[in-house]
Amino acid sequence: MSAGVIGDPRVAWLSLGSNLERPARQVEAGVAALRTAADIDVLAVSSLYRTTPVGGPPDQPMFCNAAAAINTRLMPYALLAALQAIEAGQGRVRDVRWGPRTLDLDIIALDTRYSADPRLTLPHPRAAERAFVLVPLAEIAPALMLGDAGRVIDCLARVAHDDIEAWAAP
């Protein structure tokens, strides 16, 4: 076994998003990269959703968002590094916080693991407040617990999400 790999797989829930360079294709390419990544097995992928940008610079293009459930044997920081490598492979540049991006892969939850580390906080600290995460995640894991915030489906009931729609090619 290599460094950063454990014996038994864990389930991780991911959020995928893009608002640059044909966003739906970027998200689909991200899923394809997950399917071929070492020590990752894709279990489920949500539909694609068109969502309004949250935070960041004004006048950004709309996002394409999705969620995925994976089995992984990677330790948390090794998984984070693998996801960031996929992002970089698709041209992700980290120059403006919450700015436009070719691909964003976030770990929302990793089994029932809790982490307060600023580099990797689990569950994701803002997931329970963000409809662009909750709507796709509710499609594949409505009962997933997001820490003290509760189940995904209950969090979704508390946030506005009427501006999110199924992705349709422009």
UniProtKB/TrEMBL annotation:
Group of enzyme by EC: transferase
Q: From the record, give the transmembrane residue ranges.
A: none
Annotated PROSITE patterns: HPPK
**Gene Ontology terms for molecular function:** 2-amino-4-hydroxy-6-hydroxymethyldihydropteridine diphosphokinase activity; ATP binding; kinase activity
Pfam families, alphabetically?
A: HPPK (PF01288)
The segment(s) forming the 7,8-dihydro-6-hydroxymethylpterin-pyrophosphokinase domain are 97-108
What CDD domains would the database entry show? HPPK (cd00483)
Pathway stated in the Swiss-Prot or TrEMBL entry: Cofactor biosynthesis; tetrahydrofolate biosynthesis; 2-amino-4-hydroxy-6-hydroxymethyl-7,8-dihydropteridine diphosphate from 7,8-dihydroneopterin triphosphate: step 4/4
| Gene3D superfamilies the record matches | 7,8-Dihydro-6-hydroxymethylpterin-pyrophosphokinase HPPK
Keywords of this protein's UniProt record, alphabetized?
Answer: ATP-binding, Folate biosynthesis, Kinase, Nucleotide-binding, Transferase
Give a GO biological-process term: tetrahydrofolate biosynthetic process
Reply yes or no: does the keyword Lipid biosynthesis apply. Answer: no
Q: Which domain of life is it from?
A: Bacteria
State the EC number(s). Answer: 2.7.6.3
Q: Which family does it belong to?
A: Belongs to the HPPK family.
Q: Which PANTHER family match?
A: 2-AMINO-4-HYDROXY-6-HYDROXYMETHYLDIHYDROPTERIDINE PYROPHOSPHOKINASE
Question: What is this protein's function per UniProt?
Answer: Catalyzes the transfer of pyrophosphate from adenosine triphosphate (ATP) to 6-hydroxymethyl-7,8-dihydropterin, an enzymatic step in folate biosynthesis pathway.
What is the protein's given name?
Answer: 2-amino-4-hydroxy-6-hydroxymethyldihydropteridine pyrophosphokinase
Q: Which organism is it from?
A: Salinisphaera japonica YTM-1
